[in-house]
Automatic annotation (TrEMBL):
One of its GO terms (cellular component) is exocyst. It comes from Astatotilapia calliptera. Belongs to the SEC6 family. The exocyst complex is composed of EXOC1, EXOC2, EXOC3, EXOC4, EXOC5, EXOC6, EXOC7 and EXOC8. Interacts with EXOC3L1. Interacts with BIRC6/bruce. Interacts with MYRIP. Interacts with SLC6A9. It is found in: Cell projection, Growth cone; Cytoplasm, Perinuclear region; Golgi apparatus; Midbody. This is Exocyst complex component 3. Component of the exocyst complex involved in the docking of exocytic vesicles with fusion sites on the plasma membrane.
Length: 744
């Protein structure tokens, strides 16, 4: 206490010191004293109130403890009285055993009396019940059946209570009521028959279906009651629980499965479209049945059955099982597509499970897939394998058919623009289009896969097409009279290449999500260009075979004295190009340019082969003028055919003519230099040949010109066009070898 008092004094001193830190605060001492007095009075009042409250609580607790003590004493006294009475009543209870037995016997006799009427009329009731079942009066039949079962069960229960080990009496009751179980089984058969025809019954006589459901619900209640009594007494009547509700769902499930399995009306042997028909019948049956369930059958079952969703699941499971069976069969390619299209697209569409009348009752997105993903993948792989094999055969047959057309004596058909063509591109891409349309029905990824496969097969097919075109040309060269329409069909082959390109681009735009070029695209483009260019080359070979004799006359003595070789060449080329106008762009333009190049090259070859050597200036002048004239003829002809600039190629002939026309030999080097500057690909052998044909250049002059040009040789690596090509040089070298090996 002293320590607490000291702490209180110290705290008070500290507070007073805090209040009186300035001299002006001394005036407020009285005010501070009154405030502290009020605080002290307030604290003391709260302390008194708290102590008073504690005292009141203690007083109340003591009063309650005193009352509890009195109650305990009363209870103790009462228990003592009860114990005394119980000891005194033991003998009395033992004396009442006979009464207890009498009560049990009375209960059994009462049950017997209560069921006495039914017991004596069992055979009659059995007969009436049998007749009612046969007349399809199911509710009345069930009511009588319940009466019979109730009498039997009550008697058995009382016997069980009296002596559960007495099996002989139990057996006697069972024998007497043995027809009851048969009636129950017979009634159950009728119920199951009604349920099996539920789709028909609900339309014709829905009350019959309602009666069946009511009977099953009654039996379910009795089952529950019997099971509860068994838990209490250990007794349950024979045949219980019947579990007719579970059996009902099993019957409905079997009915749905039978409905789905019975949709196959024809086999593959009888109808190639058997699967399409089967799937369509299945779709119609399922949709019609579910609409009936929604609009009619739901009203015949209790709401807690969740009837529509239950049937929805039953049909889904039945269809899934049937589809799996179909998938396990040895299906053809078109059948695989029909099945997968139906499974992946039709099934959940508005034509079937997604029908507007059904959507309000269920969510189709919660349905599991009809087929597992691995089964779908296996079917797709099988289809791709079969499709690859089939399309290879189809392409082979299409090409064989086209080859037969190449041998015809009539010209090929022309398109709306007058270009020759065969039916091959249309046949090929009709096949591709049909298969891609089918693949698109399955899903986008598979469509892309089939498109890539088509393009891959197309590339292989075009390589074969190229080989056949070469064989066609070689066959023609063995007898140029056959086939009669060789040129026209070779033009059609070239045009087909352009048609193939356009068709491929059309397919990609229509069926591909990606615009990126692939390796197959590049390979196809390359092969088509090669086929078209080779075809153009074959046609030009045909032209130049006809021109061969006339080309051999160029730069000969006969040519110098008045040959009409170039006139004939121009007429022949123009005649051929009347047919070549039936070639599509850009190949016709490329072919015209190539024809001009080859004509000029052949002309230059004639010069380089030194078929003639001019003997005097007059011959050189006459030959040069003739060359210039013929160069102009070529210019006019090919400008007419192609509408393009021909000066550079034909100018080579004119430039060579200028070398021949020169009269002053001292200016020969200058003229040759001009020629070399215009055509940098000219070789030393070419210059030597030109000077040899000119005929007046001495050995020293030739060496000087060639030597000087060699020293000042201009690179021609950047030249895009070439006319003095290696083949010209090669021909020149071959001529030299032939001359060297020629016997003197």
């Amino acid at each position: 206490m002293e320590e607490t008092s000291r702490e209180a004094v110290a705290t008070a001193v500290q507070r007073v010191a805090g209040m009186l830190q300035r001299s002006d605060q001394l005036d407020k001492v009285e005010q501070y004293r009154r405030r502290e007095a009020r605080k002290k009075a307030s604290v003391e009042a709260r302390l008194k109130a708290a102590i008073q409250s504690q005292l009141d609580g203690v007083r109340t607790g003591l009063t309650q403890l005193h009352s509890a003590l009195l109650d305990v004493k009363d209870i103790q006294s009462s228990l003592a009285d009860v114990s005394k009475d119980w000891r005194q009543s033991i003998n009395t209870i033992e004396n009442l055993k006979d009464v207890k037995d009498a009560v049990v016997q009375h209960s059994q006799l009462a049950a017997a009396v209560e069921n006495l009427k039914n017991i004596f009329s069992v055979p009659e009731i059995v007969g009436e019940t049998q007749q009612l079942i046969e007349q399809a009066e199911l509710l009345q039949a069930h009511r009588k059946l319940m009466e019979l079962e109730c009498s039997r069960d009550d008697l058995m229960y009382e016997q069980y209570r009296m002596d559960s080990r007495n099996t002989s009496d139990m057996h006697l009751i069972s024998i007497y009521f043995e027809d009851v179980q048969g009636l129950s089984d017979e009634l159950a058969k009728q119920l199951w028959m009604v349920l099996q025809r539920s789709m028909v019954t609900v339309r014709r006589d829905p009350t019959m279906l309602v009666s069946v459901v009511r009977i099953i619900e009654r039996e379910e209640k009795i089952d529950r009651r019997m099971v509860d009594r068994k838990k209490q007494t250990g007794f349950i009547p024979p045949g219980r629980p019947k579990k007719w509700k579970d059996k009902m769902f099993e019957v409905l499930e079997g009915t749905v499965s039978t409905r789905i399995e019975g949709t196959q009306a024809v086999t593959r042997e009888a109808d190639k479209m058997w699967l399409v028909r089967l799937l369509e019948i299945t779709r119609k049956y399922v949709l019609d049945d579910l609409i009936v369930v929604k609009n009619l059958m739901v009203q015949c079952f209790p709401p807690h059955y969740n009837t529509f969703n239950r049937f929805f699941r039953l049909y889904h499971n039945a269809v899934s099982m049937r589809v799996k069976e179909l998938a396990s069969e040895d299906l053809e390619a078109n059948e695989i597509v029909s099945l997968l299209t139906w499974v992946l697209n039709t099934y959940k569409s508005v034509e079937m499970m997604g029908h507007p009348e059904l959507c309000s009752e269920c969510d189709i997105h919660q349905l599991e897939p009809l087929l597992p993903r691995e089964v779908v993948d296996d079917l797709l792989s099988k289809y791709v394998k079969t499709f690859t094999s089939n399309i290879t055969g189809w392409l082979r047959k299409a090409l064989e058919t086209d080859k037969k057309d190449w041998q015809k004596d009539t010209e090929p058909e022309a398109d709306q623009d007058g270009y020759y063509q065969t039916t091959l591109p249309a046949i090929v891409f009709q096949m591709f289009e049909q298969n891609l349309q089918v693949a698109a029905q399955i899903d986008g990824d598979f469509k892309e896969k089939v498109l890539k496969l088509c393009l891959k097969q197309m590339n292989t097919f075009l390589l074969r097409y190229r080989e056949e075109a070469v064989s066609y040309k070689e066959e023609h060269l063995r007898d140029r009279q056959l086939p009669q329409c060789y040129v026209q069909y070779m033009i059609a082959i070239i045009n087909n290449c352009q048609t193939f390109k356009e068709s491929i681009n059309s397919l990609k735009r229509k069926y591909s999500q990606s615009s990126e070029p692939t390796d197959s695209d590049a390979a196809i483009e390359r092969t088509l260009n090669e086929v078209a260019k080779e075809g153009c080359q074959f046609l030009l070979d045909e032209v130049f075979l006809d021109l061969e004799s006339h080309l051999n006359e160029l730069l000969t003595r006969k040519w110098l004295t008045g040959s009409h070789a170039v006139d004939t060449i121009c007429v022949t080329v123009e005649d051929y190009f009347n047919d070549f106008n039936k070639i599509k762009k850009p190949f016709n333009q490329e072919m015209t340019s190539e024809a001009l190049r080859r004509v000029v090259v052949e002309y230059i070859k004639a010069v380089m082969q030194k078929r003639i050597t001019f003997k005097n200036p007059d011959e050189r002048k006459e030959g040069a003028e003739r060359m210039m004239k013929e160069a102009d003829q070529f210019k006019f002809l090919f400008r007419k055919l192609a509408g393009e600039d021909t000066d550079w190629l034909c100018g080579a002939i004119t430039a060579i003519a200028e070398v021949f026309k020169l009269t002053d030999p001292t200016l020969l080097f200058l003229e040759v230099s001009t020629l070399v500057s215009k055509y940098p690909d000219i070789r030393e052998e070419h210059i030597q040949a030109l000077l040899a044909v000119r005929g007046d250049a001495s050995r020293e002059m030739r060496q000087m010109i060639i030597g000087t040009l060699s020293e000042n040789k201009v690179s021609h690596s950047g030249v895009t066009q070439s006319i003095f090509k290696d083949d010209v040089v090669l021909n020149l070298r071959m001529c030299r070898l032939l001359k060297m090996n020629k016997p003197l």
